User: Fold this.
Amino acid sequence: MDFFELIKSRHSVRSFDSRPVGEALIEKILDAARLAPSAKNTQPWRFFVALDKGAKEKVVKTMAAHNQWAMDAGAIIVVLADMDYGHKKETKNYLIDIGLCLENLLLAAEDVGLGACPCTNFQNELLDKELGLPSNLNSIVVVAVGHKKGEPEIHEKKSVQEVVWPPQ
Ligand SMILES: Cc1cc2nc3c(=O)[nH]c(=O)nc-3n(C[C@H](O)[C@H](O)[C@H](O)COP(=O)(O)O)c2cc1C
Assistant:
């Protein structure tokens, strides 16, 4: 798909049908995610992938009540940050890195015909515990990925004129 078409056709998807998401598609999505730029090329992202009901439950039970629809997603990807990278500990660069990786992931999901929604409304420390993460890894964002059911809601975006400063 044309790059701008892809960007325009991506919307957060919160309604999924029951088809599972194959491991080959997950691999493709993670391949795009891992190619994101990062400060000093530290690539701090790590991914926990939940495909079966038990693993998905572990994640979804830490999510807010309004995010429980995530259980219907064929896959849940938790993007983790590896905090063991000296020079960046005092900066917020790792959050920018994870954000860039997240956008690659979301666009790749759209490109392979899946829908996705990033969620940060979950209990990070509880999820870290549920997943048995070592102390250097922190959960940053939970991404529900699956086969779209129906049409996603379209959220209006500000125009270029509205976001350029100073106003023209
Ligand atoms: C950092 C971040 C956190 C988000 N957390 C949630 C969430 O917890 N639950 C949810 O339903 N959507 C969540 N979203 C999705 C946003 O609501 C959505 O991206 C926004 O409304 C714009 O819609 P669009 O993605 O369709 O363009 C999150 C998005 C981002 C970028």
In short: The beta strands are 45-50, 75-82, 115-119, 137-146. Residues 11-12, 14, 67, 117-121, 155 surround flavin mononucleotide (CB under 6 Å).
